[in-house]
Amino acid sequence: MKKILILITAVIIASCSDNLESLNENIKDPSSVPGETLFTGAQKNLVDQIVDLNVNNNNTKLFAQYLQETTYTDESNYDQTSRTIPATHWSILYKDVLKDLDEAAKIIEDTQYSLPSDIEVKANKLQVIEILTVYTYSILIETFGNVPYTEALDIDNLLPAYDDGETVYKTLVGRLTVAIDALDTSKGSFGVADNIYGGDASLWKKFASSLKLRMGILLSDVDNAFAKTTVETAVTSGVFTSRADNANFTYLAASPNTNPIHDNLVLSGRHDFVAAVTIVDMMNTLNDPRRPLYFLEVPGTGTYVGGGIGATSNYSSHSHVSAQVEAATTPGVIFDYAEVEFLLAEAAARTFAVGGTAKSHYDIAVVESIESWGGSNADAVTYLAQATVDYDTALAASTATTPWKEIIGNQKWIALFNRGIEAWTSIRLLDFPTLATPAEPVSGFPNRYTYPIIEQTLNGTNWQAASTTIGGDLAETKLFWDLN
Questions:
Q1: Could you tell me if residue 351 is left (phi over 0), alpha (psi between -120 and 50 degrees) or otherwise beta?
Q2: CA 221 to chain centre
Q3: Looking at 37-41, 78-82, 202-206, which range is the least confident one?
Q4: Strands 332-335 and 247-249
């Protein structure tokens, strides 16, 4: 009887032990995440950061002088230190985008799919991840200069070295070329998990080719021969040919999946921004038909008025962004057909073989921009006929050292409204339009984001080496591609 009791007790203890261990199991949250889910999250984090207007996250719409702050004007005055904007940009792109894309690729690579349809699209999924990875790294390099690359994304290396920006940028072009060639446009990819193209591989191929075009143009002043080959092969592989190709992220009507600008301007209940005088004055001078599509007239005046750069601007006395700009479901645009045509105009002006002329691509770009915002073709034709807008007439009248840069640069900037990061990059490359000096500038015009302060304290040796290499960790330091 004693032996039986001991046996029963042992069984009870073992059972209790098993039960206690099971109590530590989290049965509510998944133990693993599908690669497709990580891709969806990384894609949204990426577009949110590119689109955002929140001064804690992205100040490029202020740097491009599209908008002006009403009360707190630090960021309009090029202050990058009072708020840790560079650190936020860095962290989101590395941690919430690149690392999740990297992990998504590993999981998808290792996943044994059972459905034939899933097996067929597996390779395309990996190429789409590769394309977004290249895009994200290109933004980091265009923003900071030298950045961690070969040692990045390794969780066991908390102090990664920085790589040479130009070398990495050219490597990224090569990666992009491989991805373009590897995509099978007869098959899909992520389907509904892809909120830009719905998994359409043919559109991702056009996006990749258009990105290659953009990256080639950016290298034009530093390595013209490499740029020429990059641009011409990008066009051959097939860039955007209509607005149906636009890379538009789909936002929803309800928080937290609205366009971030809706959150910044509507859901916040704040009145922090008005139109900036720089863009309003240029559009007023040109009688630009996009004014009512971008902005609202000041009530009771019938006029568009922009706030002074770096100065406080009374909200009720200046133009605000239009309902179209601040709507919850306005797509998050990271690349569009109008920009591609402006890039082709630049390529033609640089005598690259892309078909057409600088004027023909410029005309298409201007018309596309006006019509895509909701303007009419008649408005676009009338606009282009003005002497101040007509490519040939404006080119002849320009006193700029490189007249085509002024003509294309000004119109490209107007067309890129609401796309701060790419507008900022275009301004730095073409040096147009001429921007106003802020009322109380903390620095000269920011040619880059300064490195995150946390890099100075935690990764000091590598930060110092990178800073020295690029010419100093300063806002005014020009990056390798920004020569003129």
A1: left
A2: 22
A3: 78-82
A4: antiparallel
Looking at residue 71, its amino acid is T
Q: What is the mean pLDDT of residues 218-245?
A: 98
Q: How far apart are CA 290 and CA 142, in angstroms?
A: 28
Alpha carbons 316 and 40: distance in angstroms, whole number: 39
- State the Cα–Cα distance between residues 181 and 151, nearest whole angstrom: 27
Query: 3-class DSSP state for residue 261?
Result: helix
Phi, psi of 19 (to 5 degrees): -65, -40
CA 92 to chain centroid: 12
Straight-line distance from the first to the last Cα atom of the chain, in angstroms, rounded to the nearest whole number: 96
Top-confidence residue, 84 or 476: 476
Largest CA distance in the chain: 111
Radius of gyration of the chain from its Cα atoms, rounded to whole angstroms: 25
pLDDT bin (cut points 50, 70, 90) of residue 25 is low
Residues recorded for the chain: 484
Q: What distance in Å separates the CA atoms of residue 306 and residue 159, rounded to the nearest whole number?
A: 45
- The C-alpha torsion from 477 through 479 and 482 to 483, rounded to 10°, is 70
Asked whether the beta carbons of 206 and 239 are under 8 A apart, the reply is yes
| Two structure tokens written together for 444 | 């000269």
Q: Looking at the predicted structure, is the pLDDT value of residue 324 above 70?
A: yes
Distance CA 446, CA 63 (A): 7
Q: What is the dihedral of CA 49, 339, 342, 172, to 10 degrees?
A: 60
> Is the distance from CB of 85 to CB of 59 less than 8 angstroms?
yes
Residues near 308 by beta carbon (within 8 Å), at least 6 away in sequence = 68, 277, 436, 439
Q: Which contiguous run of DSSP H or E holds residue 122?
A: helix 116-144
Q: How much of the chain, in percent, has pLDDT values that exceed 70? A: 94
Q: Residue 109 and residue 433: Cα distance in Å, rounded?
A: 46
Q: What are the residues whose beta carbons fall under 8 Å from the beta carbon of 28, sequence distance 6 or more? A: none
Asked if residue 235 lies in contact with residue 177, where contact means CB atoms within 8 angstroms, the answer is: no
Q: Among candidates 409, 480, 474, 398, which has minimal Cα distance to 442?
A: 474
pLDDT in tens, 119-131: 889 999 999 999 9
Contacts of 394 (CB under 8 A, 6+ apart): 387, 388, 407
Contacts of 162 (CB under 8 A, 6+ apart): 146, 147, 148, 462, 463, 465, 466, 469
| Mean pLDDT value of segment 367-395 | 98
The pLDDT > 90 percentage for the chain reads: 89
Give residues with Cβ within 8 angstroms of 117, minimum separation 6.
Answer: none
- Collapse the DSSP code of 331 into the 3-class scheme (helix H, G, I; strand E, B; otherwise coil) and give the result: coil
CB of 235 within 8 A of CB of 355?
yes
Q: What pLDDT score was predicted for residue 21? A: 52
